[in-house]
Amino acid sequence: MRIPIQDVTPETGTAEIFGWVHEVRDLGGLAFFLIRDRTGIIQVTVPKKKASEHVLTAIKEVSRESVVRISGTVKAIDKAPGGRELVPEVFQIISRSESPMPLDVVEKVPAELDTRLDSRFLDARRPRVAAVFTIRSAVIHKVNEFLFSHGFVNITTPKVVAAATEGGTELFPIAYFEKEAFLNQSPQLYKQMMMAAGFEKVFEIGPIFRAEEHNTTKHLNEATSIDVEVSFADHYEVMNLLEDLVRDTYLHVADHCQDALANLEIRDFAVPDCPFPRLNYAEAIAIAQKKIEEPIGYGDDLNSAAERAIGEEMGCHYFIVDWPTEIKPYYAMPFEHDPSICKAFDMMHPRMELSSGAQRVHQHDLLVQQISAKGLNPESFEFYLTPFRYGMPPHAGWGLGAERVVMTMLGLGNIREAVLFPRDRHRLVP
Ligand code: ATP
Ligand code: MG
Questions:
Q1: For a surface tag, which of 36, 146, 280, 354 has the fewest beta carbons within 10 Å of its beta carbon?
Q2: What value does the mean pLDDT of the chain take?
Q3: Is this structure's pTM higher than 0.90?
Q4: Residue 168's pLDDT is what?
Q5: Domain range 5-95, CATH architecture
Q6: Rounded distance between C-alpha atoms, residue 96 and residue 28, angstroms
Q7: Of 165, 219, 352, 405, best ligand 1 pocket probe by most atoms within 8 Å of the beta carbon
């Protein structure tokens, strides 16, 4: 019966393992193999004099990265990984790997990211790459658990849509029979409509599509958004929810992903403290003005240099609040006392933005006014505006980029490392 490699110990006596041939070393009288499955690595030692004919044939034919089945006797040995080795009675090649391979799995010098992504199935055999996706899975698991345990309803909204969420050029047009359609850039309008439906707390974890032309290390053309919307809540309430969710997700990874963190050589995994400091937009701009050379002023969006400069000053996760109404989307609620600023926030990691959110405008007429003020035509938002005429509760919410959470949590240099098959300007395959 198959035993996961991590569970093979001298106490098991005998073991049958299935895995990939990680390394081969032939010392004449002795042949050594490292066999790898998703749980670990074990040394297989073949003393040639004592080995059976079929074992000798198999070890002659086998190539690195072939899939094998091996069963035999487990022995304690200090020098081998995990303090044990397997001496085979059966050595079966199940699926032979061709060589040379397009990417060397055990290569000591790391390959270029592009080469790795071209052969992602081989790249992901590396324990340190697999670790990223083990942790990403744990993040998504915890986010689901957190939101379900807080009474949220999971929803799925369409990705093929007729109108842009925020207008603009960041849209991929698609052929949809005889109509013009787009890939959705955000579930924003749909999650708000579910507030009108009385769902009160909804979330969706799904793809968003952005036709951003520039190639950066923190933008994808297809990203995963964790989206939340809450009725009868203001922006402060959903900010509290967001920081708790981020902290609990880190805690979950710290508690459940020790092996993956070790594979990534992350030893000081720091869980962020709550509450996150809150900086207002005007203060943020003032910090950026002091620290960066490019001119930036009140009313400008924060570019990457500004985000990094402010992040360096803050040194931890933080919020930026009190944004100018003019640079936030039409659905962000202006403050009653000063409508030039609005109840929007960004949640930041020192390296970059992770989330944007706001209390939303729930008054139909104000919303129409704000859509027009952005130079958009309210008529193309009829499906979205209608629910605001039949009893829309006040509500607030946010969108959190899953890849950016994983990227910043693990200190990855490029967002593409946090996606199995990234989509960018140049990459549509695999
Ligand atoms: P940025 O200014 O950093 O490009 P944004 O303000 O355009 O981001 P939002 O529309 O506020 O992005 O989306 C909410 C969150 O979704 C962002 O904070 C980010 O984490 C994530 N996100 C948005 N666009 C992308 C993208 N192209 N690639 C990866 N993640 C993204
Ligand atoms: Mg944003």
A1: 280
A2: 96
A3: yes
A4: 66
A5: Beta Barrel (2.40)
A6: 23
A7: 219
